[in-house]
Amino acid sequence: MVLKIAYWATTIIAAAMLLSAVTYLTGSAQVVAFVNHLGYPQHLRLVLGVAKPAAGVVLLLPGLRLLKEWAYAGVSFAWSMAFLAHWLAGDGAMAFFPLVLLALLVVSYLTRPASRRLAPTTVPVGTAEPVARAKN
């Protein structure tokens, strides 16, 4: 039960932060200034404004196991680079916020239920024949 609570709590927080990135698409003066402050080109704001909310939705939806793996990976890269961008922009302690989000994402990834994980491979490397899996 503790793992289930940890999974859903961290996943919902991470997804909420990702969904809030839809504001990148507004092009408001505040958002444009924020992107300029970090040294990012404006077209990246548009890409992240679509990709981050899409990843948040994928993390919350059932199924889509392979897409979830890609979402976890993409968000990990995005938040790692966000930390670096904020640090290099001189944002001080605020630069560590993406690392807090990354830690929540790691907890979400490690505590996700079997129904949200990729199925184990049944073809060992170097062979063409599938191996029979034992029934659980």
Number of domains: 1
Low-confidence stretches: none
How many helices? 5
Largest sheet: none
In total, the number of strands is 0
Overall structural class, as computed from helix and strand content, comes to mainly alpha
Q: Distance between the terminal alpha carbons, to the nearest Å?
A: 21 Å
What's the overall average pLDDT, rounded? 90
Q: What overall geometry do the principal axes of the alpha carbons give?
A: elongated
- Topology pattern, helix = H, strand = E: HHHHH
What Rg do the Cα atoms give? Answer: 18 Å
Percent helix: 55-70%
Beta strand %: under 5%
Structure description:
By secondary structure, the protein is mainly alpha-helical. The chain has one domain (2-112). Helix content is 63%, strand content 0%. The chain has five helices and no strands. Helix 1 (2-19) runs antiparallel to helix 3 (42-60), helix 1 crosses helix 5 and helix 4 (65-88) packs antiparallel against helix 5 (97-111). The longest helix is centred in the middle third of the chain and has 24 residues, at 65-88. The mean pLDDT is 90.
